[in-house]
Amino acid sequence: MKHRKSVVIGIIALVGLYSCVPTREIRDEDPTVPEQYQNQPADTVNTGLVQWKTFFKDPHLIALIDTALVRNQELNIMLQQVDMAKNVIQAKKGEYLPFVNLKAGAEVEKVGEYTRNGAVEKNLEIREGEEFPEPLTDYMVGAFATWELDVWKKLRNEKKAAVFEYLSSVEGKNFMVTNLVAEIADSYYELMALDNELAIIDQNLEIQQNALKMVKLQKQAARATELAVKRFQAEVLKNQSHKYEIQQEIVEMENRINFLIGRSPQHIDRMSDGFIDTPIDAINAGVPSQLLQNRPDVRRAEFELAAAKLDTKAAKANFYPQFTIKAGLGLQAFDTKYLTTTPESVLYSVMGDMVAPLINRNAIKAQYKNATDRQLQAVYEYEKAILNAYIEVANQLSNIDNLKKSYDLKDGQVQALTESIELSTRLFQSARVEYIEVLLAQREALESKMELVETKKDQMLAQVNMYRALGGGWN
């Protein structure tokens, strides 16, 4: 009766102790986004779902991306991180299964005769006429198991958290693929734009050199001054210098692409001739809620949050008792000839442990608080990722629209200024305008053509950035 009372009192004390386990309320995440983008229809057709080999049409660009997805060093490093995260799942899975170890051993021991063991060994015979050997040997072989009972689901929650961490690493890899595809496409279009700028410089140099010859002839006929000749000559030299600057930029851009695809510097095959006439395809943004599934960075943040929630549960379980079962079965004897004699040499054991923190729980309290802080941090990271994704798409929608309007205006400007070169040259030949008018017409025409190429490049980059913002490129 007294024993039963003591058990009841112990249980009540234990319940009272663990009713004081701290609990911190963490607010839930808010994944809501607007129903549609501003000034955009609520259409679920989404370009981000298109595979990158379909989105990009240039075969040279497709070949570069294909190579990068195999040889890019940063991506291969990330793949190893994904594999390591997968290995953690295997380790965590094994923690809530029994650990069984095979043990074998041999020892020699000499104890004092005036000890308990020594007196027993000295006076006890094994069989008639036989005594314990001195020194005493001992041989043992057996299997021993340890199993922590996952009563509070701590180990299973840690395993599930490892699964979410693995899924997060996979999404991290996907996000890297998205950015890698976009970076190669950006660099490729910038390289094509540089080729076109170099071609414009060459065309303009030919026009300026012809104008320089004309001014020299005008000077010989006393219809122009040496000042005009020097000004035209300086303009030619200026653009020849600019040509070398662009050539250097081309070399650096080619090597940037070579680095991204993991190979030594070499020529990048490309089709730059029709760059300025490249059509700009329409992009369908879909609805904002699709970003939660399409964007790898959003999904990565979501999995990180799920893992953080489970880590908090596992940290809270540290306040509760831990139950462990230990068992062993084997053979043990002082002589190998008796080792297989059963049941005399059989040994076995079964033991159950309960260990619970009682006094000075500061360490596990701090661990629990850190876990809840990380969970709240993951909530903010998730919400930030959603907001960032929405804003990126909204910015690119506006950018695409404004670049289209800008390109149309600059195209008209280029046509007008190109015509002004020929017109100013004719007027100068007939002495109706000063040479400075010819110089300004050539300079403005060159600048407008360069700006048109830059705007076309910006349009191509906006297409790529929009595709990336919608979550395209990894699938």
Summarize the structure in words.
The chain has 475 residues and is of the alpha+beta class. The protein has 2 domains: 20-96 and 151-320 and 361-469, Outer membrane efflux proteins (OEP), CATH 1.20.1600.10; 98-149 and 322-355, Single Sheet (Outer membrane efflux proteins (OEP)). Helices cover 62% and strands 10% of the residues. It contains 11 helices and 4 strands, in the order ααααβαβααααββαα. A 4-stranded antiparallel β-sheet has the order 1-2-3-4, with no helix packed on it. The longest helix is centred in the C-terminal third of the chain and has 68 residues, at 362-429. It is elongated, with a radius of gyration of 40 Å.
Helices, strands, pairings?
Layout: H1 2-18, H2 52-55, H3 59-71, H4 73-95, E1 99-109, H5 116-123, E2 136-149, H6 154-220, H7 226-260, H8 291-294, H9 296-316, E3 322-333, E4 346-355, H10 362-429, H11 435-469
Antiparallel strand pairs: 1-2, 2-3, 3-4
Helix pairs in contact: 3-6, 4-6, 6-7, 6-9, 6-11, 7-11, 9-10, 10-11
Radius of gyration: 40 Å
Q: How many structurally independent domains?
A: 2
Number of helical segments?
A: 11
Instruction: Report helical residue fraction.
Output: 55-70%
Compute the separation of the termini in Å: 70 Å
Q: Using DSSP, what is the number of strands?
A: 4
